[in-house]
Amino acid sequence: ERADAYQAWLRSGGNLPFPDGEREEEVRERILRGFRKIERILREQSAEDTAAAVITHGGVVMTLLAEKRGGNFYDYQINNGSFLELDLEDIRV
Fold this sequence. Notes:
By secondary structure, this protein is mainly α.
């Protein structure tokens, strides 16, 4: 039964809720809340050159870029082991 649910999720292109997991909208909101928290902490720092590194999987990056820049989540796939350097102004959500 779990294998069937997983196969149905794959066939949906990830649009169905992941079996026994969060719905797409729940994941998106959790990612955005986390990023807003990082933004707030960085803005509270007094130095202009305050920076942070976020190490995460591509789905988080794809979610943030799709939210900020529009388009489809899958428009922003990056290769494994890749990195992006972004200014907060580029991706404020």
